[in-house]
Design a protein that fits this description.
The chain has a six-stranded antiparallel sheet, with no helix packed on it. A three-stranded antiparallel sheet has the order 6-5-8, with no helix packed on it. Helix content is about 30%, strand content about 30%. The chain contains five helices and nine strands; from the N terminus they run αααααβββββββββ.
Length: about 190
């Protein structure tokens, strides 16, 4: 009976995850390739959750399958980050991928002559320079952040950063897609 209750709760969990990301059924359908009616039945519990439906949703929501379905913890709280290499930058995820905060470490090779592309997206970034120097373009500002310094900003402002050299740049990044700030003040 307990397993049946867990399976029944998957639909509600899927709806909560979708809504927490501000997505409509149509948007999830377009991004995952699963029909809107199937998604609706899945979320209402009228359709049984199957692996061929859950895997595309786990990829879309960037969640491990266990987190997507609310599987019970197995007792080991450690995460097992898998470094990714993209355009010469090594990114090591430091958080489990669920929840509003993402934490990761990046190592950037020196790229002093490469133009910095700026991006805009919802959220809030906090970046701490562990070693090296970071050139940060934030709107019209062009800043150099040294080792031991941090920057935080609203990611709806055009932004981008790179390593001006000469050494490797190592940064610790915290990102909140909902725009929550790292530094909060307690009310008096």
């Amino acid at each position: 009976m307990e397993q049946r209750d867990e399976l029944a709760g998957i639909g509600e969990r899927l709806r909560a995850i979708r809504e927490s990301r501000g997505m409509t059924l149509r948007a999830v359908s377009e991004a995952s390739g699963i029909s809107t009616s199937t998604l609706s039945r899945l979320e209402s519990g009228a359709r049984r959750a199957q692996l061929d439906l859950l895997l595309p949703l786990a990829r879309l929501y960037r969640l491990p399958l266990d987190d997507l379905v609310g599987a019970p913890a197995l007792g080991d709280p450690r995460i097992h980050p898998r470094p990714k290499l993209r355009h010469g930058v090594v990114t090591v995820p430091l958080s489990g991928g669920s929840g509003p905060w993402e934490a990761f470490k990046q190592v950037h090779p020196p790229t002093p002559d490469t133009p910095i592309r700026q991006f805009v997206h919802p959220g809030w970034d906090w970046i701490y320079v562990i070693s090296g120097r970071m050139r940060l373009l934030l709107g019209d500002d062009d800043l150099v952040i040294e080792a031991g310094e941090a920057a935080e900003f609203d990611t709806r402002v055009p932004h981008g950063f790179a390593n001006p050299g000469p050494d490797l740049l190592e940064v610790l990044c915290l990102f909140n897609s909902q725009g929550a700030k790292v530094h909060t003040r307690a009310s008096a």
